[in-house]
Amino acid sequence: MAGDTPPARGVLLDLDGVVYVGDEPVPGAAEAVAWLGRERIPFRYLTNTTSHPRREIVAKLDGLGIPATADQVLTPAVAALAWMRRHRIDRPALFVPPATATELADLHPLPAGAEGEAGAVVVGDLGEGWDFATLNRAFRLLVQPTRPPLLALGMTRYWRAPDGLRLDAGAFVRALEFAADREAVVLGKPDRAFYDAAVAALGLSPDRVVMVGDDVRVDVGGAQRAGLRGVLVRTGKFSPSDLEGEVSPDAVLDSLADLPQWWQRG
């Protein structure tokens, strides 16, 4: 944050891998978030998770000693709801966990297993709910004569679960893009529109905002392409090989706990 680069004024925080890993808090993360509040530094949580609705995320943060409100949590499901309303789409086919589907209930989704005309095909982190029949149903819906749009709730490739790495939504979206010869509308990281919405929520320009994440491509690279600064933490899915690729983070911290000291140095 030196030279002619304007000083940062706001922060976006990824959740899993940054604030917590699975159900365990990252040591010092709660204190770092409390510091942001005391310093009156505006921040939001920017997550690609589609396995939990915002109310569950807020409850989880509260259980970890991190008070939060739904307005502070920006998720792809919220972005998808706004996008479909803007395009007057209803009856989407949802490939998301049941809890997340409740956030899209106002659009009257197709019943589970139905292969009728869909207003859109929405793909999130279905986890172990994926099997051949489910993926093939999504494909069949996409190649209907009406050609419904494919909405991707983020393009994260994988995440770190308590038992190890697990595939995320991005892998299944790519399979459907290839099979249906379709390009997905991405409503989540690393899409620029998702970052733009988060920056607007802070009331700042992109060059005044720092994104803190554990995914060098999605969090850091996506943020930098949107004009933000990207800070990589060595928690969650971080691997030393992340520092050898084409994305060069603006800073690398051992964990979110180091954010206050790094900020004050800048």
Distance between the termini: 5 Å
Helix content: 25-40%
- Mean pLDDT score, rounded? 93
Tell me the series of helices and strands, N- to C-terminal. Answer: EEEHEHEHEHEHEEEHEHEHEEH
Q: Could you please say which CATH topology of the largest domain applies here? A: Rossmann fold
CATH superfamily of the largest domain: HAD superfamily/HAD-like
What would your notes on this structure say?
This protein has 266 residues and is an alpha/beta fold. It has nine helices and 14 strands. The strands form four sheets. A six-stranded parallel β-sheet has the order 5-4-1-12-13-14. Strands 6-7-8-11 form a four-stranded parallel β-sheet, covered by helices on one side. Helix 8 links the parallel strand 12 and strand 13. The relative contact order is 0.17.
Characterize this entry briefly.
Helix 5 packs across helix 6. This protein has two domains: 97 residues, Rossmann fold, CATH 3.40.50.1000; 111 residues, Rossmann fold (3-Layer(aba) Sandwich). It has a six-stranded parallel sheet with strand order 5-4-1-12-13-14. It has a four-stranded parallel sheet with strand order 6-7-8-11, with helices on one face.
